[in-house]
Specification:
There is one protein chain. By secondary structure, this protein is mostly helical. It contains 4 helices and no strands. α3 crosses α4 (about 130-155). The longest helix has about 70 residues, at about 20-90. It is elongated.
């Protein structure tokens, strides 16, 4: 004979329509309440963790925004200081500009001198290498210049 629990045999305090005793129903209700309470506690814990994380993110965002604002203020202050310094001492600014212009003119003069020197060396080399061609080119340049000069004198009235 199979050993079945008491609830199926209808002993120990009466049965309900489904064959489950009132004692078993009570235990099941207690277990359900316990499970529901545990689920609620877990939900509250999770909600608190989410709230804490959200607060941390908000604080970090505020800190980052404050740092960016501080950097922007510092940059603006530096630019303002530079502009004020330039406006406060126009003579020094003019001297700086003149010095920079002189330096750039010196560099440009050096570059032009080197280019002229290389052009002279190139021309000397080619004249020595091809004297007849150089003579013909010089003759054509001379004829062209003479033509331009004499054609301006003979402008019709």
């Amino acid at each position: 004979m199979d050993e079945q629990p008491m609830r199926n045999q209808g002993h120990a305090g009466g049965t309900t329509g489904g064959g489950v005793t009132t004692i078993d129903q009570g235990r099941m209700m207690e277990q359900a309440k316990t499970a529901a309470n545990q689920a609620m506690d877990q939900a509250k814990t999770t909600a608190n963790q989410v709230k804490t994380t959200a607060n941390q993110v908000m604080e970090q965002t505020k800190a980052t925004a404050n740092q960016a604002m501080d950097q922007a203020k510092t940059m603006a202050r530096n630019i303002g200081d530079q502009a004020a310094a330039a406006a406060a001492d126009p003579a020094a600014t003019a001297q700086d500009l003149a010095r920079l212009a002189r330096e750039q003119a010196t560099v440009a003069g050096d570059v032009l001198y080197r280019q002229g020197q290389r052009a002279g060396e190139y021309l000397t080399h080619n004249v020595n290498e091809y004297p007849l061609t150089a003579l013909l080119i010089a003759g054509m340049i001379g004829y062209g210049m003479a033509y331009l000069i004499h054609s301006q004198w003979q402008v019709p009235d």
